[in-house]
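stage 2 :: seqdesign
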């Protein structure tokens, strides 16, 4: 992995001037490498890392284990791509082990995620079973801790 990609992942800052300063390179070099990474498909975009405990969003995220039946010619790919295209799906990964796909789904509330799973995901031909797990709290995302050790976010602040 290039030092530029590592720096982008750490800082999530798309500004070539800042990246050039961090890396000790010229802005032109950084812009050229960014363009090359975009052209070859390595760099797909910029995603801000938000702390869900600090956000005012009431969205619900869930992890869904999906067992699917592989197809003769395409294996798991056709179904995985079909599932990935749903707007609710944040991520979809082929896994080894007890289930085939790990699907991360975001919804407005528990009911909307449950409806998506029961009405749209589980009814796809080739989907054998699903197991839905709702995320209650995140402690670390993309290498960043989201709270300090021992911090209890439900506990009210102590006043003197």
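stage 2 :: out
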């Amino acid at each position: 992995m290039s030092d530029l990609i590592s720096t982008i992942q750490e800082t999530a800052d798309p500004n070539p001037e800042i990246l050039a300063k961090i890396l000790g390179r010229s802005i032109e070099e950084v812009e050229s490498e960014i363009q090359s990474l975009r052209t070859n498909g390595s760099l797909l975009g910029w995603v801000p890392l938000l702390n869900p405990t600090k956000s005012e969003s009431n969205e619900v995220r869930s992890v869904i284990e999906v067992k699917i039946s592989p197809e003769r010619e395409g294996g798991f790919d056709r179904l995985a791509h079909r599932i990935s295209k749903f707007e609710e799906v944040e991520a979809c990964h082929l896994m080894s082990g007890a289930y085939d796909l790990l699907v991360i789904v975001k919804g407005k509330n528990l009911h909307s995620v449950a409806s998506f799973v029961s009405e749209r995901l589980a009814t796809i031909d080739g989907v054998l079973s699903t197991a839905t797990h709702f995320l209650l709290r995140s402690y670390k995302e993309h290498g960043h801790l989201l709270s300090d050790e021992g911090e209890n976010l439900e506990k009210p602040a102590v006043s003197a």
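stage 3 :: structure notes
- Confidence is low (pLDDT under 50) at residues 155-160.
- Residues 3-39 form one domain.
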